[in-house]
Design goal:
heterodimer; A: alpha/beta; Rossmann fold; five-stranded parallel beta sheet; 5 helices; B: alpha+beta; Four Helix Bundle (Hemerythrin (Met), subunit A); Alpha-Beta Plaits; Heat Shock Protein 90; six-stranded mixed beta sheet; five-stranded mixed beta sheet; 19 helices; elongated
Chain lengths: ~120, ~575
């Protein structure tokens, strides 16, 4: 059974890029979300093996979405996606339950390393 | 720290908490109070971790910590109880148990471990502070570190930080864990500062481990003293009061030492829930285990054997006795099978029953197979009794025959069980009803049983009557005795009971003056045993004995009374 992933970012460009990287690695992209609340809704629906979550999103940011998801699904594997200069937010996301993080612009090898660490 | 002295304490503490952990984890699945079980399990794992860490047994501490984490997840609701989780926990407890046993045989002295590690992140690492935070969080969660320097990582953080190791952390394990965190360039060890402040193993706990052979030696010594004392009292008649006091103390000592050898069967029963659970899950069956008579005590030596015997019978019951849920429901039974393991005291034995409500043993088919294998004579058309069935099943030839498939499962090892029970001086019994279930009963003689008994005197000799079958003891006067249809009876309270004069039973012709009667009760039958005098109530140790040829078959053993005098122990069952 292929591992599934839900990609959450408000920029189509970012979602597409991550999608490519993960599909090449054998993942099945089963859903995409543009806002924090959509992310939470789709997680409930899809229960993916992995979630990539952008920090800044409209209508519930990434950190709150992480909190909501982890509250209901403590086993959720969430990889935080951040831009440079957002260290404090990333730390907050980790404390909220994200398992690891990658920094934009994405390098495929680093993304996959981080995914490896998250999924164990 | 003098490790040697603490090893024994650690061993006993570790085993105790391991047992508690094991029981609590099993209790997670019970319908009653699983929350308590989580708390108990958590505390047990936590304490075990601390004790192991203090002794430098880091593998044990790590394993205990991992279990503690899972239990914490359960406690906080992050995880829910599910059979798979309990499976995982039980497997972890098994591994922990192995590690604990291994830790009792330390191969090398605990080395002085460095207290701090210095971590360098790659210079190119983006968001170094976030990376360090993540690494530190994971290490803390695994119980490998207790802190970092700096404690938090701000924007000015340069990628170099220190870890404060938790006591007992293996440096190799830590290094691997750090490197797995991502973006780590190197891990270096700062020089060993002062050794970690290891707390001494706490001495709390009321238990002492004792070599049973020491107890035997003690018991023998006291017995000899008692006999010698009785003799000296007889010789120096004037010393009555001092002698009595000494006799009393000796008797108390003897009691205490023998009691040290006794343990409640719960020691052995405790292993059963796990065994039943594992067997049921492996066989796809649903079984409810009930344990009764947990407090009944048995000599330690007998308990050792009993454990193995019970495991065997219980596995047998789950594998071959109880049907699958589907088969049970088709037969109109509840899907969950009942398995009862029960201990009861009889006059001088303990009766252990393993009873299930399964399919019963198919008499006809066993008879056929046995006949075909030449184990018994050709089927005679008579129905096999339970005794016959047991005899067939415990034939070594029967249980290992290949032709017998699902039936042989029932017989496998039964010959070994029967053999072991016989060696202990006991008996194995079988009761089975097709479609309804089977009971295996082990009657084990308790030769070292401490029993409450009445001391009575008949014609100048003292005898002990175990109280297990005594309803009461009363004074009688000749007035109360009457004859009904040629047999003497006596009124006790509102009952007319048959009167049995012990003098007659003992074969004494001359009449005596009986002032008391002991009312013996066996099931529904009651009778009054007339004796000359009631002397006292005592706790005695019954020793079985080989009666001399021609002796009356009414004695179940012999004992030493409190004042050191030997007395025969009467078996009311054989008299009534």
């Amino acid at each position: 059974m292929p591992r599934t992933v839900l990609i959450c970012d408000d920029a189509l460009f970012m979602r597409t890029m991550l999608s490519d990287i993960l599909e090449q690695a054998g993942f099945e992209v089963v859903g995409q979300a543009e806002t924090g609340s959509e992310a939470v809704r789709k997680y409930r629906e899809l229960k993916p093996s992995l979630v990539t979550m952008d920090i800044i999103m409209p209508d519930m940011g990434g950190i709150d979405a992480v909190r909501e998801i982890v509250k209901e699904y403590p086993e959720a594997n969430i990889l935080m996606c951040s831009a440079m200069g957002q260290q404090a937010l990333v730390i907050e996301a980790i404390q909220a339950g994200a398992r690891d993080f990658v920094v934009k612009p994405f390098q495929p090898s680093r993304v996959l390393e981080a995914v490896q660490r998250v999924l164990g | 720290m003098d490790a040697g002295r603490f090893v024994e304490l650690y061993a006993s503490e570790a085993r105790e908490h391991l047992g508690l952990l094991s029981r609590s984890v099993l209790a997670l699945e019970s319908p009653t109070a699983p929350e308590e079980a989580v708390g108990e399990a958590f505390r047990a794992a936590h304490t075990l971790k601390g004790v192991a860490a203090a002794m430098g047994h880091d593998r044990v501490a790590e394993l205990a910590h991992a279990i503690e984490d899972r239990l914490d997840d359960l406690r906080s609701g992050r995880l829910q109880v599910a059979p798979e989780l309990v499976d995982t926990l039980l497997a972890a407890v098994d591994t922990l148990e192995e590690a604990v046993e291994a830790s009792f045989h330390p191969s090398a002295p605990v080395a002085e471990a460095p207290v701090r590690a210095r971590v360098h992140l790659h210079p190119e690492t983006p968001l170094k502070g976030a990376r360090a935070t993540l690494i530190a969080m994971n290490l803390r969660r695994r119980g490998l570190i207790t802190g970092t320097h700096p404690e938090t990582f701000d924007d000015a953080f340069d990628g170099i930080f220190h870890l404060v190791l938790a006591p007992g952390t293996d440096p190799g394990v830590l290094e691997t864990a750090v490197l797995a965190g991502g973006d780590v360039e190197s891990v270096a060890w700062s020089e060993a500062g002062t050794a970690p402040n290891v707390p001494a193993a706490h001495l709390a706990g009321p238990h002492v481990r004792v070599d049973p052979r020491r107890l035997d030696a003690l018991a023998e010594g006291i017995s000899e003293l008692t006999v010698l004392h009785a003799r000296s009292v007889a010789t120096f008649n004037g010393q009555q009061s001092a002698g009595d006091r000494t006799a009393m103390i000796l008797a108390e000592l003897q009691d205490e030492v023998l009691r040290l050898r006794m343990q409640p069967v719960s020691v052995v029963f405790d292993r059963l829930p796990r065994a039943v659970r594992d067997a049921a899950r492996a066989a796809g069956k649903s079984v409810r285990l009930t344990l009764e008579g947990n407090d009944i005590e048995l000599d330690r030596a007998i308990l050792d054997d009993l454990g193995d015997l019970l495991l065997h019978l219980v596995r047998n019951a789950v594998d071959h006795g109880i049907e699958s849920p589907a088969a049970r429901m088709a037969a109109g039974k509840p899907a969950q099978g009942e398995l009862v393991v029960r201990a009861e005291r009889e006059r001088t034995s303990v009766r252990i029953t393993v009873r299930e409500d399964g399919r019963g043993i198919p008499r006809g088919r066993i008879a056929e197979h046995a006949a075909r294998l030449g184990v018994i004579g050709p089927a005679s058309g008579e129905v096999l009794t339970d005794e016959d069935l047991l005899r067939i099943l415990t034939q070594p030839g029967f249980s290992t025959a290949e032709r017998v498939t699902e039936l042989s499962g029932r017989g496998v090892g039964l010959d070994a069980v029967a053999g072991r029970v016989r060696t202990l001086g006991g008996a194995l019994l079988l009761r089975t009803e097709e479609g309804q279930g089977t009971s295996f009963i082990m009657r084990l003689p308790v030769t070292l049983a401490l029993v409450h008994a009445l001391r009575v005197r008949v014609a100048g000799e003292d005898y002990a009557i175990p109280l297990t079958h005594v309803a009461e003891a009363v004074e009688i006067q000749d007035v109360h005795v009457s004859a009904v249809a040629g047999r003497e009876t006596v009124r006790v309270r509102d009952d007319m009971l048959p009167l049995i004069r012990m003098r007659h039973v003992l074969g004494l012709r001359d009449p005596g003056h009986e002032s008391a009667a002991v009312v013996a009760e066996i099931g529904e039958r009651r009778a009054a045993l007339a004796v000359d005098e009631l002397i006292s109530r005592e706790q005695i140790l019954i020793k079985s004995f080989d009666p001399a040829r021609g002796a009356l078959p009414i004695f179940s053993g012999a004992t030493l009374l409190a004042d050191g005098r030997p007395a025969l122990v009467l078996d009311p069952l054989s008299v009534v």
